[in-house]
């Protein structure tokens, strides 16, 4: 059975639809589908009625941005920008009643996270990029609760921390996982949500393969044996090294390389649970 992607379905209705990477000109109106798919349609080919109908099911991207915002939006929407140092990406889906509440929300965020890049992608979607130093997550959740109370803005948040990597790839993963962030006062690690996604969304095999491609590529026989030994020893590095007749530093080095390759640290609880599930799925296919 052929499963059509969101982009394929849009193309069947609007043959002239384009990817962001194909055309970033001002003659294209850009939209984000609920699953995070970004697509563009030539402005001159859209009637007012078609534009209104589109906005029922897709959110227009903000394109009138200052140069700094536009630069980071482009980096998020393509797979060309790569960090060579630690970074954290936080994706926020917003719910609020009026535009003034959004402005208050962004002001509070800017005061709380002065070193972060805060990018308004749509009027209901914000991305936050931190490098090197990250705010404490419990303090961030306290701020979310205060904003929900004082500004009447709820933010559903997921985050990923990486030692390095491609920004756009992580952004696309977050867009797929955002609907799984249920509570507005909690920041969810993306690895936790991906774990639930892989268990609940078996019909979307192509998407599942795309989300786990970097991990599966790293799963050679030696890596699988190393991970299974780590799981069997409750993530205890010393016990695992002893079981593998390996020096502890050598084991940590290999786990560090796996972390850089996949973005998941097998020594951390949520990441380890996700890796164990993917190893199991990989071996059963």
Question: If you had to describe this structure to a student in words, what would you say it looks like?
Answer:
The chain is built from twelve helices and ten strands. Strands 6-7-5-8-10 form a five-stranded mixed β-sheet, sandwiched between helices. A three-stranded antiparallel β-sheet has the order 2-1-3, covered by helices on one side. The longest helix is centred in the C-terminal third of the chain and has 16 residues. It starts with 5 loop residues before the first helix and ends with a helix. The model has no long low-confidence stretch (mean pLDDT 87).
Identify the notable features of this structure and list them briefly.
globular, 50% helix, alpha+beta, three-stranded antiparallel β-sheet, single chain, 12 helices, 18% strand, five-stranded mixed β-sheet, 285 residues, 10 strands
Find the count of extended strands (DSSP E, 2+ residues). 10
Largest β-sheet summary: 5 strands, mixed
Number of helices: 12
| Ends apart, CA distance between termini | 18 Å
| Cα Rg | 21 Å
Low-confidence stretches: none
Q: What is the helix content?
A: 40-55%
| Series of secondary-structure elements, N-terminal to C-terminal | HEEHEHEEHEEHEEHEHHHHHH
Find the structural class using helix and strand composition: alpha+beta
What percentage of the residues does DSSP assign to strands (E)? 15-25%
The shape is globular
Instruction: Identify the strand order in the major beta sheet.
Output: 6-7-5-8-10
**Average pLDDT score:** 87
């Amino acid at each position: 059975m052929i499963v059509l992607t969101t982009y394929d379905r849009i193309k069947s209705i609007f043959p002239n639809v384009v990817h962001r990477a194909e055309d970033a000109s001002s003659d294209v109106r850009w939209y984000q589908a609920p699953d995070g798919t970004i697509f563009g349609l030539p402005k001159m080919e859209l009637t007012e009625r078609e534009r209104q109908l589109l906005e029922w099911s897709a959110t227009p991207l903000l394109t009138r941005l200052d140069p700094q915002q536009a630069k980071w939006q482009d980096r998020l929407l393509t797979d060309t920008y790569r960090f060579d140092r630690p970074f954290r990406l936080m994706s926020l889906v917003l719910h609020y009643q009026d535009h003034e509440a959004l402005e208050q929300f962004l002001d509070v965020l800017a005061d709380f996270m002065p070193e972060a890049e805060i990018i308004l992608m749509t009027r209901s979607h914000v991305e936050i990029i931190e490098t090197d130093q990250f705010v404490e997550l419990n303090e961030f959740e306290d701020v979310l609760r205060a904003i929900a109370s004082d500004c009447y803005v709820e933010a559903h948040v997921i985050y990923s921390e990486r030692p390095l990597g491609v920004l756009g790839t992580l952004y696309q993963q977050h867009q797929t996982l955002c609907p799984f962030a249920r509570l507005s006062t909690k920041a969810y690690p993306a690895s936790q949500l991906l774990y639930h996604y892989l268990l609940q969304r078996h019909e979307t095999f192509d998407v599942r393969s795309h989300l786990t491609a970097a991990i599966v590529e790293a799963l050679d026989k030696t890596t699988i044996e190393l991970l299974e030994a780590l799981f069997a020893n409750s993530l205890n590095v010393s016990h695992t090294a002893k079981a593998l007749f390996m020096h502890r530093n050598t084991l940590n080095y290999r786990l560090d390389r796996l972390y850089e390759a996949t973005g998941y640290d097998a020594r951390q609880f949520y990441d380890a649970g996700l890796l164990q599930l993917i190893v199991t799925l990989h071996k059963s296919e």
